[in-house]
Amino acid sequence: MQSFSGPILLATDLSARGDRALDRALLLARQFGTSVIALHVIDSQVRALPTPQRPAAERESQARRALLRDLDGVDAGVEIMVRCGDPVRLLQQVAEERRCGLIVAGVARDETLGRILLGTTVEKLVRISSTPILVVKRRARRPYRNALVACDFSEGARVALRAALALVPVEELTLFHAFDLPGNRNDALTAKGFQRTAQEAADQFLENTPELHGSEKPRIEVAAGLAERVLIAYADQSDCDLLVTGTHGATGLLRTAIGSVAEALIEKAPCDVLVVRQPDGRA
C-alpha cells in the first residue's frame, strides 16, 4: 500500500459535526505514523451581528481553548493552530509550508436552511490545492475497508487511484466509469458498444499504471448515465466507505472538473469523499 507523506492538516470549524473529521484525522495519523495539525481559521470577513465584534486576540484565545477541550486525552501528536484571515488562503498556505500530505475537513450543515456551511471553503480549496482533500461525513469507527474511484482513464484518474491506494488495499478498490450515450441512442446495442470500448480503455489504463504491476487488479464497473448520479447511486448501493475523484480529466467522467462532478460528490455522496487535484495545475 502507498502512503501519504507529511503531517495531516485538519481544517476544523469547531462544530459538533467536525468531531467526525477530527476522529478520522487522528485515525489516519496513527495508521501512517504521522502527526496532525489542527487549524481553525477565524474568517476576517464574517461579522458576528448583532453582537459587538470581539477583539481578534480574544476570539483566537477562545478558539484555542475549544480545540484543547476537543483534544483532551488524545493519544496522538497534535499541533494546534488558530489564525484570523481568509480560510482558503490560510489552509493552502499552511498545507504548503508544512508540506502536509493530506487535508481533512468536515462538511457541516444547517439542517433548517439545508445549506452547507463549511462546504464553500472546501469547494474553493479543492480548486487550488495540490494537497489531496478528504471530506469526512461518516463516523471514523475503523480504517477504510473499501473505496470507489471515479475513473475516466486519464492521467488525472491515475493520480486519484494512487491516492486511493494510500488508504485502501488494491483488492478492495473499484474503478467506476460512467458514460453518456450520444443523443437519444439509448438502445442496448449502442450501450453494449460503449461498455466494450470502456472495458478496453480500462485494461489499457491498468496496464499503464506501474503501481498495479505484480499485484491484484481493482474491480471495474461501467455504467451509462449522468456521472454524479450513477456514481452516488452505486456508492449507496455498494455501501462503500470512501469515494475518490480527481478534479478534472481529459474526457468523459471528470471533464467538467470541480464545477460539476466533484462538487456534486462532496455535497451528495453518502460516504467520505477524497478529492485529488492533478499536480500539473490544469483546471
Automatic annotation (TrEMBL):
InterPro entries: Rossmann-like_a/b/a_fold, Universal_stress_UspA, UspA. Residues 7-137, 144-277 form the UspA domain. CDD domains: USP-like. It comes from the Bacteria. Pfam families: Usp. PANTHER family: STRESS RESPONSE PROTEIN NHAX, UNIVERSAL STRESS PROTEIN UP12. Belongs to the universal stress protein A family. This is UspA domain-containing protein. It comes from Bordetella genomosp. 11.
